[in-house]
Design a protein that fits this description.
Largest sheet: 2 strands, antiparallel
Helix content: over 70%
Strand content: under 5%
Structural class: mainly alpha
Oligomer: single chain
Radius of gyration: 20 Å
């Protein structure tokens, strides 16, 4: 059996595991809860006729980053570390299967499960925008495509953290802290120091919503300095589309390579 078929088999059983453990169902229900909440807010508190299509669409896209982080935690947080915590690796790793096939089989299953969740959310978002405006702006399609690039890169980074640890619970908690707090703190510090956070994946992913700014693709300012006091300034950085794509691609390539190498040489204890 060649490596590709082995990878597909691993992916198949990993995906079935997401179904049996009800992780996929749980995240779908969370997604539907977010959708319902937004529909209720829009119906009772927002008047779409007073908003332009991009302004309205941006409201739908705002939770996408949160949803992608949840998907990475649900499907990638303990994907590798869990094998060492539960000792299931003793049954899987000795088999005549390349570790690279195991790693990428799991990764593909995680991406497919996450994609299902995202497509459900995007179906409601695109449908609601079209319902009110009878059009879907090019900016919304940009954001749609970029969200899957963010998913690819964030999953790769999550797998890297998971491959470094031997406890699935610790891996999930650590990754959650990093994604929800550390990266946000880093982005905030950059505003005070005036140093562009090009090394932050969440900074790169900010293009998901920035594309809705009227002149973003044209001459939208990538750096704004505001006076916050007599001797104090705040600098707001906005990556260009190319910069945002480059940051997310770099995270995907570097994280996936490192995670694959670490998993290849890591031993069961």
């Amino acid at each position: 059996m060649n490596d590709f078929l082995q990878m597909l088999i691993i992916s198949k059983y990993q995906f079935k595991n997401y179904i049996r453990s009800k992780r996929l169902l749980t995240l779908i229900l969370i997604t539907l809860a977010i959708v319902i909440a937004y529909i209720v807010v829009i119906h009772f508190y927002i008047e779409p006729s007073y908003m332009e299509v991009n302004e309205f669409a941006k409201n739908w896209v705002s939770p996408i980053s949160f949803l992608i982080i949840l998907a990475a935690l649900f499907f990638g947080g303990d994907a590798i570390a869990g094998e060492y915590q539960t000792k299931t690796g003793y049954f899987l790793l000795p088999n005549p299967i390349r570790r690279e096939s195991i790693f990428w089989g799991k990764y593909i299953a995680s991406f497919l499960a996450s994609t299902i969740v995202m497509l459900i959310y995007w179906a409601f978002a695109l449908g609601d925008v079209y319902y009110y405006y009878k059009e879907i702006s090019i900016a919304l399609w940009y954001s749609f495509g970029l969200s899957f690039l963010f998913l690819l890169s964030l999953l790769a980074l999550t797998y890297l953290f998971s491959s470094l640890l031997n406890n699935g619970t610790v891996a999930i908690v650590l990754v959650a802290i990093i994604y929800f707090f550390v990266f946000n703190i880093v982005d905030s510090i950059s505003m005070l120091t005036g140093v562009e956070p090009w090394y932050s994946i969440t900074y790169g992913a900010s293009i998901l919503t920035l594309v809705f700014e009227g002149n973003y693709i044209g001459d939208y300012p990538t750096k704004q300095v505001m006076q916050a006091g007599p001797h104090f300034t705040i600098t707001i950085f906005n990556p260009t589309i190319n910069e945002g794509i480059a940051i997310m691609l770099a995270y995907f390539i570097i994280s996936s390579i490192l995670a694959t190498v670490i998993f290849h040489y890591k031993e069961m204890k």
